[in-house]
Design goal:
Layout lengths: L4 E5 L2 E3 L4 E3 L1 E5 L2 E6 L11 E4 L4 E4 L1 E6 L4 E2 L2 E2 L4 H10 L2 E7 L8 H15 L3 E7 L5 H12 L4 E5 L11 H13 L3 E5 L3 H13 L10 H5 L2 H17 L4 E3 L5 H12 L4 E6 H5 L22 H13 L2 E5 L7 H8 L16 H10 L6 H15 L17 E11 L18 E11 L2 E5 L2 E2 L22
Parallel strand pairs: 1-6, 2-7, 8-11, 11-12, 12-13, 13-14, 14-15, 15-16, 16-17
Antiparallel strand pairs: 1-4, 2-3, 4-5, 7-18, 9-10, 18-19, 19-20, 20-21
Bound molecules: N-(aminocarbonyl)-beta-alanine (URP) and zinc ion (2 copies).
Length: about 475
């Protein structure tokens, strides 16, 4: 690392708890010092960046993306290059993506292969979660190795039996045991497979059934399936107490179920995703409804409202993108006009902050420090990136977003930088603009222009320290 130094002056630094006028001294990829406005001598620096009128945020972290990920016969749109470019434009300086080994394959080998690709492609830092498909002896000992090599989080599914992804309760209990013993965190996709299968059959056999009524996707995956699955995980946690993170929660009722579990002391955490806050199942009505197929499905306005309350008051601690868009052509070809055959998942890595700022902060639903908590500090603490990332304190990586709150925009697939012709948030008006982004002290976006290079990003080996959390 060379010795150049950077002063970011005149801006308002926002943390997860407050906003203050602070100048930042950046050197060797880190925050070397903070000072009151004007306290550093400009002459001393290689570069001075005038951030007057700007908010300065810690680099955003998206802990739930699927890069290069095969699913339902297709593959996600973003690889580490296209995905990290879109991420950078969205102020994200670290992603955690999933490795997707097949049944019987080694999780570690798969992660190593993924890292080899990411090393060449990624413009930003990354971590990897494993995906666990069984809990055989071999898998369990592999998980222990994995955790101790810097991959302390892994996901399992309570559904997708048809794609060989579902993990049975008995295996979840074994996973919880390993998780507790190794200071890790189990991520769970909660939808009860039996309810989904039952409803799918019911919907398919209805006399007025029309396969291309995409709203059938939401009908066949009701909120009850998600609620029951979350409640079941909580029951299992009572047998084997271990940290659990419920991914992509989408229902109003789940907020109460999870809060009750927190109230009795269980180490349960949850996220929602941008789309569950601002879109409803009505998007599935209409010809291009297939583009909005994701699981769990988009819900109702009451669910949006409950989730907004929960990002402010808890239990939600993170908003991720669950970026998992698949090519439109695959949605059409593999879907064969059948709602249940369309590969699931939507793109959303780039507009996450723009949507949350505009719909959350500008509309008075959450304040900016809370948004920083949801998109940077909390994911850093929960997923073992803190104190290296997730804040702008002295010693932290100089992952920095310079955000101009005084501009207006509109989201469109024709102008975004995601590798797709579709945006779930098409036409949404936005306030504010990410002007510049630094990852470990280097500009990757400067005044709206991409200057980062593939291969700059680094693998971050993570270690969870729950003493950073408000509850452990
Ligand atoms: O529909 C979704 N969410 N696709 C991505 C895979 C997952 O379950 O997160
Ligand atoms: Zn999932
Ligand atoms: Zn996902």
């Amino acid at each position: 690392m060379d010795n150049k130094s950077l002063l970011i002056r005149g801006g308002t630094v926002v943390s997860d708890s407050c906003a203050s006028q602070i100048d930042l001294y950046v050197q060797s990829g880190r925050i070397l010092a903070q000072g009151s406005p004007g306290s550093f001598d400009r002459e001393h620096f290689t570069e001075v960046y005038d951030a007057s009128g700007m908010f300065i945020l810690p680099g955003l972290i998206d802990p739930h993306v699927h890069f290069d990920s095969p699913f339902m016969g297709s593959k996600t749109l973003h690889d580490f290059q296209t995905g990290s470019i879109a991420a950078a434009y969205g102020g994200i300086t670290t992603v955690i993506s999933f490795s997707t080994q097949g049944k019987g394959e080694s999780i570690i080998e798969n992660i190593e292969n993924t890292n080899r690709i990411a090393e060449k492609q990624s413009l930003i830092d990354w971590g990897i979660h494993g995906i666990v498909l069984d809990a055989k002896e071999d898998t369990l000992s592999e998980i222990e190795n994995l955790i101790n090599s810097g991959y302390p989080t892994y996901k399992c599914f309570t559904t997708y039996r048809h794609s060989d992804r579902m993990v049975e309760d008995v295996d979840i209990l074994s996973l919880l045991k390993v998780t507790a013993r190794n200071n890790a965190m189990l991520m769970v996709h909660c939808e009860n497979d039996a309810i989904l299968e039952h409803n799918l059959k019911k919907v398919l056999s209805e006399s007025n059934f029309e396969s291309n009524l995409w709203i059938n996707h939401a009908k066949s995956r009701p909120a009850s399936a998600e609620n029951v699955a979350i409640a079941r995980i909580i029951d299992l946690m009572k047998e084997e107490v271990a940290p659990v993170y419920i991914v992509h929660t989408s229902t109003r009722e789940s907020m109460g179920i999870i809060q009750d579990a927190i109230n009795i002391g269980l180490p349960i955490h949850c996220e929602t995703c941008t789309h569950y806050l601002v879109l409803t199942e009505d998007q599935l009505i209409g010809e291009n409804g297939y583009q909005f197929i994701c699981s769990p499905p988009l819900r109702k306005k009451e669910d949006n409202d409950a989730l907004w309350l929960a990002v402010t008051n808890g239990p939600l601690e993170v908003v991720s993108s669950d970026d998992a868009g698949v090519p439109t052509v695959d949605r059409i070809k593999l879907g064969e006009g059948r709602f249940d055959k369309v590969p699931n998942g939507m793109p959303g890595i780039e507009p996450r902050f723009a949507v949350l700022y505009s719909q959350g902060v500008v509309k008075g639903r959450i304040n900016l420090p809370r948004l920083v908590a949801l998109t940077s500090t909390n994911p850093a603490k929960l997923f073992g990136l803190f104190p290296q990332k997730g804040h702008l304190g002295v010693g932290a990586d100089a992952d920095i977003v310079i955000f101009d709150p005084n501009s207006e925009g509109r989201i469109s697939a024709s102008t975004h930088h995601m590798n797709t012709d579709f945006s779930p948030f098409e036409g949404m008006n936005t306030t504010g603009n990410i002007r510049s982004v630094l990852c470990r002290g280097e500009f990757i976006i400067r005044e709206g222009e991409l200057i980062g290079t593939p291969g700059y990003g680094k693998l971050i080996r993570r270690r969870i320290d729950r003493t950073w959390l408000k509850r452990n």
